[in-house]
Amino acid sequence: MSRRVVAVSTLIYYLKETMEADPVLHGVMIEGEISNLRRPYSGHWYFSIKDSKASLPCVMFASRNRSVTFSPKDGDKVILTGDVSVYEAEGRMQMIVSSMRPSGVGDLYLQLEALKKKLLEKGYFEETHKKPIPSYAVNIALVTGNNTAAKADVLKTLHSRWPIASITEYPAPVQGAEAVPKIIEALMKADRHNHQIVLLVRGGGSLEDLWCFNDEALAKTIYSMKTPVITGIGHEIDFTIADYVADLRANTPTGAAEAAVPDIKEVRNSLCKYKSHMISLVKSRAELERKTFDNAAESNVFTRSERLYSEQELRLNNLQEKLMSYTSIPAEKRNNLHELLQEFNRLMYAYTANIRTILHTSDSRIRILANTRLEQTKNRIQQEQTELQSSVNKGLTERMNAFSKTASLLDAYSPVKVLARGYSVITDNGKTISSVNDVSIGDKIDVTVSDGKLNAVIKEKSNG
Question: Is it the case that residue 303 has pLDDT exceeding 70?
Fold first, then answer.
């Protein structure tokens, strides 16, 4: 049977139309390993999906790959859904991918979302239940795998940022079926020892590697603990049920350590600022108290206390004289009145004496109290002045040593040192002569040596 000759493009177009018309090749789901992944500026993904026997080119356009919930890389085993077609320009078969998910974790994702929804409805993720993190924790529990990079990073960060902290380790496996009960046991043990913070950390890994942190029993344990829990599990894009339940979630183990403790350098700077502020307040308060004391000491209560009752005493005497001047009062009543006035005066004198004693005692107590407070303030100020003077002297010594080194270095490079070795500087009217061509016979020149200057006349010159 005869065949007609066709162009290459005709054949490729026929193949493309045939494949795209075949419903079997629409919505195909294949499983394999990603290789040669490229992500150009266009945002599209170009890669191949392969197994041990074959490889298939794939393209996933930017409009589709935005919905991928993980960051694929070469070597990842994935499940793709898409249409099989032909790329006409190169005449090769390819798959246009519409969706991508990690292989073998589809069911795990469904389980994770179901557990997340269940615990969310029970209130396990409520912010109101989360315990506050202490600002300056010094008693920290660390729950993580033994001899792991995550453990090393956390310990290094804690010792660097907050070396005064005491760290108690509770090792537990952080991967595999037996990890969950061991992690729960370590957390409960740490919670019983009254630590201020519990760090639960693990390095990065796949969803399967981190699956032990998506356990409901573990979530209930974290939720019921009385000690605040900070998690640092996986990388920034990894979220587990333990992260949602924890009182604070960090994106990495190192981030968890940084969230647990402050930086000791920043704390020291803050304390220095507080110290300066307190000294200023004490000085201001001492000055205010001194002025208050001086004003009180100069008041009439202390300087002329007798005037508080002298005027009243004069007035009573005048009234007494007026009463005694009334001759119409019978002698018997007048004598009774006189006795009453005498008794009144006696009581007044006793009352006045008590007032004087009280005023004198109050004056003494006020002066003693004020002197004591002033002495304490003076001692604190003198102590701060001593520390400040010591700091100034130390800084001055350091700068003097640096100045001496610089001066020695300048002296070593001084041109005078060069002149002392027999060299000289020759100038003509202030201009340095560096060549025989700079002068003529008969010119007067100045020769500077180490201990003075010479005047000379050019009598002869030669080159070379």
Answer: no
